[in-house]
Amino acid sequence: MKRLVILGGGYGGLRIIERVLSPDLPDNVFVTLVDRMPFHGLKTEYYALAAGTEPEKAVRVPFPSDPRLTIKFGEVTGVNMDERIVTFANGDTLAYDWLVIALGCEDRYHDIPGAEQYTHSIQTMNATRNTYTAINNLGPYGTVTIIGGGLSGVELASELRESRPDLNIRIVDRGPSILSPFPKKLQQYASQWFIEHDVQLVSMASVTRVEPGVVYNHNEPVETDVTVWTAGIQASRIVRALPIEKDNIGRAKLNQYHQIPEYPNVYVVGDCASLPIAPSAQSAELQGEQIAMMLKKDIKGEEYPASLPDIKHKGFLGSLGKKEGFGVMGKVSLVGQMPRVMKSGVLWMYKKHLG
Ligand SMILES: Cc1cc2nc3c(=O)[nH]c(=O)nc-3n(C[C@H](O)[C@H](O)[C@H](O)COP(=O)(O)OP(=O)(O)OC[C@H]3O[C@@H](n4cnc5c(N)ncnc54)[C@H](O)[C@@H]3O)c2cc1C
Fold this sequence. Notes:
Structural class: alpha/beta
Shape: globular
Largest sheet: 6 strands, mixed
Number of strands: 24
CATH class of the largest domain: Alpha Beta
Bound molecules: flavin-adenine dinucleotide
CATH superfamily of the largest domain: FAD/NAD(P)-binding domain
CATH topology of the largest domain: FAD/NAD(P)-binding domain
Number of domains: 2
Radius of gyration: 21 Å
Number of helices: 9
Strand order of the largest sheet: 5-2-1-9-21-20
């Protein structure tokens, strides 16, 4: 009997499971998926859950059901790669022959005092539920400060504007514009949308401290009722604690087959893997495809290919509320209703595919 254990049923982990559970999987291989949640969370949509525009049921999908798959629910606390054992918060352990670490990422607070204690998060389903409660319990004309004007901050702010027209909303970003890694056309379009929808944009900010009800920008206090942190990520703490080489945000450095070089029976996928392209659901899935292919070779004792193709993004899509959006397809920047419709279509197909 051979044991394949996959830690994390997010975008990367789930894609690997789908591909590995093919008809040619040998009978003596037992596949176990481990997650703290009893369903696949659609993390790319957590902003809508936080804003109150989508119910929780809309941002989750059941895990696959297959007689060859065992699902173990629990909080992973560590991996001992020498002993090939996963440990859990309740004291359980789980042994493996091959392991995939697909545990995603956490917020990164850049050592800013109070940031972790006094801001809300949309990185996990549970944190997003708390954020939803904090925001939606605000009385009329309360103030929400979103720190970080990247994709998730922008999607949250716009969705929240449509959900709660009464609230004062501001996005605080350290760059000259929101969406700074994206083409100028998108930055300008999104900025204009926020101006027209009465969302304050604070650029060239430097958040130096956070306290209950106060965010300090360049040490100047700014009052707020709820503060949401969307200003950076780092690898899951489980990966950060591994005794291996990591990048500056704690992601595992891997060999060309997505394995930990000293432990080639351990693969790392998605937001906790150090990849040359930006972390995203799409890159987690594309990397997952390659890992599934490598795992099948491991399982069958087949030779590895000389190299794997580069992982390339096909593009991305973002939303500005329910009716407008933006995106990049190849070299073309898209703004307006069309990218929003495309984003909804991609989500619909993804959910339909997973059943
Ligand atoms: C608001 C928001 C919007 C986004 N929008 C987009 C977008 O439009 N397009 C895009 O491509 N990307 C987007 N992203 C990024 C995308 O969600 C991530 O890159 C993607 O989820 C990474 O997939 P993953 O498989 O690495 O991790 P995840 O999908 O985060 O999966 C990790 C899994 O591990 C489980 N887990 C974690 N720790 C433990 C533990 N200790 N014990 C047990 N289980 C654990 C979690 O429950 C989860 O199921 C967005 C992110 C956010 C927050």
